[in-house]
Structure formats: structure tokens, C-alpha cells
Design brief:
The structure is a homodimer of 92-residue chains.
Chain A (H helix, E strand, L loop, with lengths): L1 E7 L6 H15 L1 E4 L2 E5 L2 H12 L8 E7 L5 E7 L10
Antiparallel strand pairs in A: 1-3, 1-4, 2-3
Helix pairs in contact in A: 1-2
Chain lengths: 92, 92
């Protein structure tokens, strides 16, 4: 499954630490393509594992994390408007 | 076509103005679901129009805008981990 992960972490006093943890965990599973955006191929069990790890740092009342799942990368095209992050060029 | 638009606008002296313009233009075409994330149904010509409008404000050397296109919303599922923005509840 091809997934896109986007997150918006509240900037309160614990926000920076949560952001760093969510960023470093996400980087173990997916490719960083933009400030708070990751993409890549994950199995359903990979998604379950990623979610379990991230859940420890997501504050349900403060932080928003969205995971878009496409049944395969062939169903998902990407256009880059503006600067191309080096990281994005070799994915979709 | 179902699209997800994510952007990361450089925070230089013109960044705030660019962000506001990109936000308000994007809102005319798509649903705002997270800080710099929009989603919704768009035709190919709608995408061309959106791009033309946004291009006036995207600084190619500074700003990153990614558009993910899925051939239809049925190929794209969404999971919400953390707080559900009111705006996201009635889309995917």
C-alpha cells in the first residue's frame, strides 16, 4: 500500500519534543518529502506498527496526524509545484 | 480525480503573504483538513487552473507544494490519528 503521512503538532511546551519523536519514528518507516509530510510503501502490518509507535507521542486533543492510503502507487501520481526537495525526486 | 495538496512555504519576509494567498486560493478549490493540507475532488482542468493561480505566489526556489492525485476517492482511504479537525470529518 502506498501511504502519505501528514501531521500538524501543537506548538505548546511539549510540542517540540513530540514533533522530533514523531519525525524520527516516521523516518524509520517512510520517506521525508516535505516539512511534515512523509510518503512511501507500507504493508497493513507496517501501518499498525507505525501507528502504535506514533500513538505514544500524539496528543489526541492537540495533534492532528492524517494517513492517506492508496491501494498502490500506480493509483497515485504526484506533481511538484515549486522547489523539488532532493528527498522527493526518487519516489512517486 | 481525488487530490491532496500539501505545501511548505518559506518563512522569509514575504513568506507570510505568500502563505495567506496560497491558503485562500487553495480554499476556493479544496477542503482544508490540516495546517497546510487540503483535499478534495478536482477535474484535470481544475488542477490546471489551481496551479496557474498558485504559481503566482509559489517562489520556486523557496516554497514546496506537492499535489498527490488519485484516480478516484475510492482508491484512497484516510486514517485520522490524534485530533480530528472538524473540517476533515465529512470528506474521505
Amino acid at each position: 500500500m502506498y501511504v502519505i503521512l501528514v501531521y500538524d503538532i501543537a506548538k505548546d511546551e511539549n510540542g517540540a519534543k513530540a514533533w522530533r519523536r514523531i519525525y524520527s519514528i516516521s523516518k524509520q518507516y517512510l520517506h521525508h518529502v516535505q516539512n511534515s509530510v512523509f510518503e512511501g510503501e507500507l504493508t497493513e502490518s507496517g501501518i499498525v506498527k507505525l501507528r502504535a509507535e506514533l500513538k505514544q507521542w500524539i496528543r489526541d486533543d492537540l495533534d492532528s496526524v492524517l494517513l492517506f492510503k492508496s491501494s498502490g502507487s500506480r493509483w497515485l501520481k504526484k506533481e511538484v509545484w515549486g522547489k523539488e526537495d532532493k528527498a522527493t525526486s526518487n519516489f512517486l
